Each structure stands twice: as structure tokens, then as C-alpha cells.
Amino acid sequence: MKGKGYIKLLATLAVIGLLGVVALIGVNSENAMSARDVKLGLDLAGGVSITYETVKEDPTSDELSDTVYKMQKRAEQFSSEAQVYPEGDRRITVAIPDITDADEVLEQLGDAGNIYFIYGTGDSGVANITTTTDPISLETKSVLARSMEEIIAAGDVVVDGSDIAESKADIITDQYNVRKNVVSLRFNDAGRTKFANGTARCAGYTRGSLQNIIAIVYDNEVVSAPSVVSAIQDGNAIIEGQKTFDEAQILATTIRIGALPLELSVLRYYVESAKLGLDALTTSLIAGLIGFILIILFMIGFYRIPGIASALALLFYIELMIICLNVFNVTLTLPGIAGIILSVGMAVDANVIIFTRIREEIGSGKTVSSAIKVGFHKALSAIVDGNVTTIIAAIVLFALGSGTVVGFAQTLGIGVILSMITALVVTKFILGGLYDVGCTKIALYGSKKEKPEKPFLKHFPKFLCVSAACILIGVVGIVMNFSKYDAPFNYGLDFAGGTATSITFDDGIPADAQATIEKLVLDTVNEKAELSTVQSENMITVKTKELSPESRALLTKAFEDTFGITDENLSTTSVGSTVSGEMKRDALVAVIVATICMLLYIWIRFRNINFAVAAVVALIHDVLIVIALYAIDSAGITVGNTFIACLLTIVGYSINATIVIFDRIRENIAENHNRYTYGEIVNKSITQTFSRSINTSLTTFVAVLFLAIMGATSVKEFAIPLMVGIIAGTFSSVCLTGGLWYTLQKKIKKVV
Predict the structure, then answer these.
(1) Of 559, 557, 554, residue with least CA distance to 542
(2) Radius of gyration (C-alpha) of the chain in whole angstroms
């Protein structure tokens, strides 16, 4: 047996070591599959994210896809890692990492910037362009002689951007073996005919004359004015005259991305400093590491040999999580890191359920070997049901959320699935190996004797009063907020709309910074600023009404000039009123959808509607408690995009704890319904699962606590409500759900 056990343990350590190598350094010289290879979101890597909406209310799918393609080409001029993707039927989001000049992106990226090929001189004889030659450099420059509106009205446009199929820089060798930098053009079917007619007309005039020229105009500027040598019938043309290949590339790029099929308007944009993102990443990872170490120490100290098995399984889980982030191409954001750290805390839950069961079986007189086998078997249903409900919350977040909320949903969903695998397979395998090598004494596992049930139902009315008082505090807070904010909560930018710029001072916040900033904002953009300060991060956030990219650029320059800082010390978010209204609606819809899905799942699994109703009432209780925290203005927590993720995480976490208790009630009813009353069974079941409820909540709370203490501001605004939600969820699961179920049973089935 010992030989078999050593083989198991060595195999486990070998796999953990191998995964550790992959997670740390990857599988090749490019660090593929490692933590370094994980794609970072803009809040960590820095960069720009812009969401546009089409002015046209009902664009066709072809128009939208063509616009996405051309926006992708534009974005790639700033970064090869840029991503452009549609959202719904009318929106397009552009994410460009590692941008240092955000103003340039905001000014150029979404500009419709139509490209036109026009006649140098129209059919009416009126010149569309004028050409001048610099007497010193002898360079020729062409400019528009009249507006594009007049030129279009006169019918002097040969082709526009919608007629161009391809534009690229090239090098050709002419008949004299001279290499030339050129731009190769290819027109689509409609453009081929138009261009053939236009070049045939111009080819009949004297070379170099305005009548012989087809000028290329982008954003009302003539970017090239080539002469026509001959009529071009096949839709393929070459523009000569570029001195360098780079010059040819610039012209080719301008032509290629010049025209968007749809006119776009900016709905929201985020400009994140890479420096701020790196600081946030560092502090969040340190917080996660501390929490992880404390969880491992707690598990080993409390559960002994099983705790060692869970520590190794958790290490395996973390390594596998890093690899899965690469495999599924997940973009890691700050909320995503919070999701991972939270899932580590929740991964402990499955182990705690199993180990508690093992102790109970040992306490009932079973051998350690038998207790391990039975413990895993009896814990299975509670683990599966609890994790499935959390996965439901993650799926709803993924489907209805956006931006960083989606990243949180991905990491939470992957984490929960991996936690089931590690608890039910890896932990069991390691624990079997430890037993086989000689860890067989009961003292190494612990024993839990049957305890007399505590009178939880007796105190149920008191528990209801405590909950009602907490919820009432929230109601009072909402009423007070209406008088202060003219809204139920202190809405963050995501829900209220507007523009926020965060300024980080390397050497501490200057004494007169707030007064200076208020004056700068008023003088620069004629807006009144709302300031908030985070002393621990040397940061001041400036909120105003929604600013245009031009106004934001002016304000950014004013901050840089006044305080001697760079764009690395600045991050900006702007959200339009349309988007903020939609986010409020989406938050409500997400919570309702998740709650309904969970109700249906519990109803089906437990075959008793009272279990489902009691669980959902408890969920509503937990949500109201957390909302009460948001309503208390002195808490300083704004209702923003992470509000949705926070509520649904609490819903998923709380239902997990509730299901463990309901699973024990269901089991005790099947085994003891003739020996005990329903009231005694409820008290007995809560008593039996009490240590599990406390231990799981404690480990998860610790994991989140260090995020709240050390994390970046955006993570703290997520972690603090989550801590309150964990406390509320534990309270409702232990003190309310059993009583609610029992009350419903009495009303419907007249039980005792």
C-alpha cells in the first residue's frame, strides 16, 4: 500500500511541478501558456477603449461588418494588438492597448473621414484643386479650390471609399530597371466602371494639366494629385511619385481606411494609464498571494492531513487557472483578478464540505478509509448543486454584462468549474495517497461527534428583526440620497454618465491641488468639477459632465502643464447618458434573470417549490443588504459597472451556502422523518452544517479582505460590498433559509 501511496504522491508532485513550470515560464522561448502570456485588459496594460454607435438607426449587417473591418484597419495603425468588435446591432467597440497618445486616437479613430477621387477640373471647367510649387524645394502641393460639398454637387467625384477593394504599398521595377515606390489600387465592380470612365476622360488632356489629374482627397485635404497616363479598364491602378516606401505606405493606408460605410458617434471611452494599471495589478496580486497563503495555513491547521491535500489541490488549481486563461484567450482585467481570488476562496468550500463529512463519518464510528469514501460520496450533491448555481450567475453576467464585467464572469465561471475538478478528483487522489503512505490515524483527520441541535427556529423572529433593521437603514439612506443627488444612490460614471479624469501624483498630492484643479476645469472647459481624493494612492479624480474628445484633450494638457506630469499619470473615462441608462436597466435585468434561473434549478433538483422560494427570498434579502451599503453615502461607494458583478456574485455565493443546508435537510428527512419533527430536522441540519458555513465564509472573507485593504480603488469598490455580501449571505443561509422553508411547509403541508 505504501508503494502505491508514494507513487500517487510523486505523480501529484510531478504534475504540480510541471504545471508550475508552464505557468511560470511557459512552453517555449516566447513564454506561451505562462502567466506572462495572459492577455491583459486595458485597465492593466493601459490604452484606449471606445464604444461607438451608428448614426443610422437600422444599419444592415453588411454595413456593420464593413465598418468593423475598416475600423480594425484604422486601429491597427496604432497597435497590432488592437481589437474591434460589434456589440448588438448598432455598436462597435475598439480596444487599443499600450497607447501613450490617447488624444490622437480619440481624434482620428472614429472620424468618418471620407476619401474621394475627384477631377482636377470639373466638366463645367471650374477648377476643383489648385497646385503650387515651392520655389526652394520645388515640391508641388495641391489644395482644394472649393469645398467638397460643391464638388460632390457638381458631380465631379470619380470614385469614393466604398468603391475601393484594396490599397497597398508596393515596389515595382520599370522598363529601365529603376525601382519605384508605388501604391497599388484595386476597385470593386462598381468602382471599376466608374474609374474606367474617369480615367478615359482625363487621359485625353495634356499631361500635368488640371484636366489630366484625378486628385485624392481625405478629410478635405488633397493627399495626392497624380496625373492619368491612360484609361484603366480592368480596375487595377498604380499611383507613382512616392519618394520612399514609407510615403507609399502612408498613402495606401489613408486610402484603405479613409471611408467608413457608416457614420459613428462616440458613446463612451476609457483612457487608462499603463502605470496605474501596473500598480493596480501588482497590489492586487500581492493581496491575492497573502490571502492564498492564509487560506492554506488555515486549512492545514484546522483540517490537518486533509488540509495538506487541499493545499496541494489549490496550488494545482491556481496553475491550471493560469493555463486556462491562455487556452480560452481570456482578457484579464482587475475585476477578473478579483474573480480569480474570489474563486480561490470558493474553491475551499468544496474541500470544507468534504472534510466536514469525513469528520462526521469518523465520529459515527467508521474507519478513516471508509469515512473518506463515504465523505466524498455524501458531499457530491451539495458541491455540484452549489457550484452549478454559481455558474448560472457567471453565465448571466457573461451574457448580459459588458467590458470588465464579462472578464469577471469568465474567470469566475472557469474558476468554479476547476474548483469542482480539483476538489472531487485531485483532492481525493492526493488524500488517498497520503492515507496509503501511512497517514491512517484518526487524530490526523479529526472527529466530529453528533451535537444536539441548536434552537435556530426559536430565534427565527429575532433574525427577521435584525434583517429588517439593516434593510430599513438602506431605505433611509435612499431617501436621504434623493435630497443630495436627486437619485437613490451616488451613481458612478457608468450609471450617471459624464467624464472622469484620475490624476496620480508621484510625490504626493500638492497642498493646493484641489483648488487648482477646480479653477483649471472651469477655465479650460467651462465646467464645474466634482473632486474625490484617495490619499493612499496619491490620486484625485475629477468628474464633470460629458466632455468631447477635444475638450478632454485641452483639460489633459492643462493638467500636464500645471502639475508637471505625463499622460502616464492620467486615466480618463467618459460615458454618455444613453449608455448609463442602459446599464441601470441591464443591472436589474441581470439580477432578475439570474434569480429566476436559480429558482428553477433548485425547484427541479429538490422537487419542492418551498426550497426554491425560501432560497430566492434569502437571495433578495442579501441583495437588499448590499444595496443598503451602497445607499449609505458615508460608505463612499458609488454604484457603477461592478455593481452588477458584485450583486450576482453575492447571489451565486449565497445560494451555494443555502444549498448545502437544504441538501442536509433533504438527507435528514429521507433518513429520519419518522424519528424527528420537521422543526427538529431543520435545527439538526443547520447545526450539522454550521462549522462548514463559518469556515467557508471565513476563508472567502479573508481572500476578499486583502483585496479591500491593498487593492486599487476600482477593486476596493468591488471588494467592500462583497465582504458585506459574504456576511449577509452567511447570516441568511444559517439564520433565515431554514426558518423560511419550515414556515412555508407548515402553511402548505401542515407539518410540525
Answers:
(1) 559
(2) 33
- Is 232:151 a contact under the CB 8 Å cutoff? no
**Grid coordinates in use for 597?**
434561473
The number of residues in the chain equals 752
Cell of residue 455, nine digits: 434552537
Task: Note whether 506 and 542 are same-domain residues.
Answer: yes
Q: Which domain holds residue 75?
A: 52-109
Provide block-wise average pLDDT over 10 residues at a time, the chain (752 residues). 82 91 84 83 77 83 78 77 80 79 64 79 90 73 90 92 85 84 91 94 88 89 91 93 87 75 76 68 80 88 93 92 89 75 76 90 92 92 84 82 72 88 91 92 87 89 95 92 81 74 84 86 83 76 79 84 82 66 70 81 85 90 91 73 73 81 89 81 92 86 83 75 90 94 80 50
pTM for this structure? Answer: 0.71
- Residue 283 CA to residue 23 CA, distance in Å, equals 20
Place of cell 515651392: 134
Which residue bears the cell 443591472? 587
Nearest-10 Cα torsion for 321, 326, 332, 337: 10
Same domain flag for 129 and 222: yes
Residue carrying C-alpha cell 486533509:
306
Which burial class, exposed, middle or buried, applies to 287 when counting CB atoms under 10 A from its CB (0-12, 13-18, 19+)?
A: buried
Strands (E), 611-704: none
Asked if 689 and 661 touch (Cβ cutoff 8 Å), the reply is yes
- Grid cell, residue 466, equals 435584525
C-alpha cell at 682: 431543520
Rounded Cα distance, 479 and 176, in Å: 84
Cell numbers 475538478 correspond to 421
pLDDT score for 578: 56
- In this structure, the strands spanning 91-97 and 129-133 are unpaired
Cell numbers linked to 590:
441581470
Cell numbers placing 297: 495555513
CB 709 within 8 A of CB 341: no
Whether the Cβ atoms of residue 731 and residue 308 lie closer than 8 Å to each other: no
Name residue, grid cell 474548483.
419
Res 166: pLDDT: 84
* Beta strand spans in 569-673 (E): 570-575
Q: Tell me, what amino acid is at 474?
A: G
Which residues 6+ apart lie within 8 Å of 326 measured at CB? 32, 33, 34, 37, 38
* Domain identity same for 359 and 317: yes
Please name every residue paired with 164 in a beta bridge, in sequence order, or none if there are none. 187
> Which residue in 162, 47, 32 sits closest to 95, CA to CA?
47
- The shares of helix, strand and coil residues in the chain, as percent rounded to the nearest 5, are 60, 15, 20
Q: Are 321 and 410 in contact (CB under 8 A)?
A: no
- Whether the CA torsion 690, 694, 699, 704 is positive or negative: it is positive
Instruction: Determine how many CB atoms are found less than 10 A away from the CB of residue 292.
Output: 20
Is 514 exposed, middle or buried (CB count within 10 Å of its CB: 0-12, 13-18, 19+)?
A: middle
> How far is it, in rounded angstroms, from Cα 386 to Cα 696?
13
Cα distances from 373 to residues 210, 354, 660, in angstroms, run 91, 10, 19
To which residue does cell 495538506 refer?
Answer: 308
Q: Which residue among 541, 557, 573 closes a domain?
A: 573
Residue 537 belongs to a domain with what CATH number?
A: 3.30.70
Q: Same domain, yes or no, for 529 and 620?
A: no
pLDDT value of residue 494? 66
- Is position 450 within any domain? no
Residue 292's closest CA among 275, 272, 317?
317
Q: In this structure, is residue 234 part of a structural domain?
A: yes
Please state, in angstroms and rounded to a whole number, the distance separating the CA atoms of residues 19 and 323: 8
CA separation, residue 237 to residues 167, 214, 234, 240, 254 (Å)? 10, 12, 8, 10, 16
Question: Do the beta carbons of residue 237 and residue 185 sit within 8 Å?
Answer: yes
Q: Are 456 and 683 in contact (CB under 8 A)?
A: yes
Sign of the CA dihedral running 382, 383, 384, 389: positive
- C-alpha span between 726 and 635 (Å, rounded): 17
